[in-house]
Amino acid sequence: MKTLKESLPFIIPFCLLAVLLTVWVRHNGFFWDSILLGSTYGQWYYQTNFSTLFVPQEIAGYPPLFGMYLAFGWKLFDKTLVVSHFLMLPFLLGIVWQVYLLAKRYVPTFWIGIALLLVLLDPTLVAQSAQMAPDVVLVFFYLLAINSLLRKGALLYAVCLIALVLLSPRGQIMVAALFLTDLLIHRLHGGGLTKEYLFLFCKRYFPTGIVLLLWLVLHFQHFGWVGFNRGSDWGAYATMVNLTGFFRNIGILIWRLIDFGRILLWITALVLLWQMRRKLPLDVKELILLLLVPFLTLGLILVWFTNPIAHRYWLVVYVFLGLLTARLLLLLKNPQPRWGVTALLALSLVSGHFWVYPQRIAKGWDATLAHLPYYELRKEMLHYLNQRQIPWQQVGSDFPNLASPAATDLTTDTRTLAPKDLSTQTYILYSNVFNGFTDQELASLNSDGWQVIKELRRGQVYMRLYQKK
């Protein structure tokens, strides 16, 4: 009770912001991968009334927890976008609380607010918080697991591990990161690898291992594969890259980490670490470990595959980057620059929502709030198609605009646009939110062979309807 009372001045402002963000975006539809992982999975369980554990073959590959959670919430309340957004709010509030507990462990009271600021201002964390996204749930359970691990809460830790393996394949990878974190923190604090310790250590992960194995076995028995379905639309993402692709993935990974204003946090943290390298406190070493383990665990797996490396994959890393930077600022011998540097870092993170790259450079639109105008622009453009009586299947477009309003907005309209084919289609609906148009296709649209018959623009997002001349 005392901890809660002490926390209120720190957490209330951020909790209020989480509520206000949820209210602000409550009518926005499912976006990007959440169309599949949230809406499609959730509606399957909702419509089948939880009568089957497995979704259809063409969308299979993910554990059921998030889809079932949404479907259960819809059953309790109503299947609407407003309900869907508010179903995410408990996890947003939970993230604030978990970050507070971590900040309290690593920084003094007067600096807790700064630590919270440098974590919760991260543009990708904010953007994902504005969506109905399973990655928000992943961050919550991972942080809850870390706090349970540090506080020796064995039962809650086990619950978090099971939730993660039932949430997503990346959740399963993050369990491996927690396994390594647990072991390395024990060694960091001088613990030995005795037989007794190793037995108890393995015993701690036994229930999670059983749950994961059971899911994989059941999935394999039902579908005949686990992980990726080679015959699915995204099966190509499971292939191994060549040497060029390997180094390209490393470059993309680094870009994702420093993108959208985070570069100043990395520079600040690395400079301060270099200056203090010979006398780092134990808690700083612990924070470095908490940052590096999930980064290396996930990175060493992703760089070998053609799977796109998204910004949101590193949300946990961003959290510990903010905490580490806040802690390292306290090591400055002269405390006066702290506030100026902190203000600069906060402004850098806010600026991330305004980073828009040139047309031919793919941008992580689900990773900043820059994408928010897309929802209304899409509705207006679809309304224009209806007014002009242009059949949707005659209009070519691209992800994430190929899903029906039934999938994105939970309506009854199941019409869809067609996958783009500039050689055969008369109409093409393009937005700078789409990353799937090739340079050649963009050049063709901007040539004399096509004309823009309708353009909508709001903020940093625009949408154009092209007609072939």
Task: Describe, in plain words, how this protein is organized in 3D.
It is built from 18 helices and 5 strands. With 469 residues, it is mainly alpha-helical. The chain folds into 2 domains: 2-354, no CATH class; 373-468, no CATH class. A hairpin with a 2-residue loop joins strand 4 and strand 5. The longest helix has 29 residues, at 195-223. The radius of gyration is 23 Å and the shape is globular.
**Uncertain parts:** none
Approximately how much helix is present in the residues?
55-70%
Number of helices: 18
Number of strands: 5
Radius of gyration: 23 Å
Number of domains: 2
> What series of H and E elements makes up the topology?
HHHHHHHHHHHHHHHHEHEEHEE
Structural class by secondary-structure content: mainly alpha
Shape, principal axes of CA atoms: globular
User: What's the mean pLDDT score?
Assistant: 94
- The percentage of residues in β strands lies in 5-15%
N- and C-termini, Cα separation: 70 Å
- For the largest beta sheet, what order do the strands appear in spatially? 2-1-3-5-4
User: Main β-sheet, in a few words?
Assistant: 5 strands, mixed
Protein name: Glycosyltransferase RgtA/B/C/D-like domain-containing protein
Transmembrane segments: 7-25, 82-100, 106-125, 132-150, 197-218, 253-275, 287-307, 313-332, 339-357
Keywords: Membrane, Transmembrane, Transmembrane helix
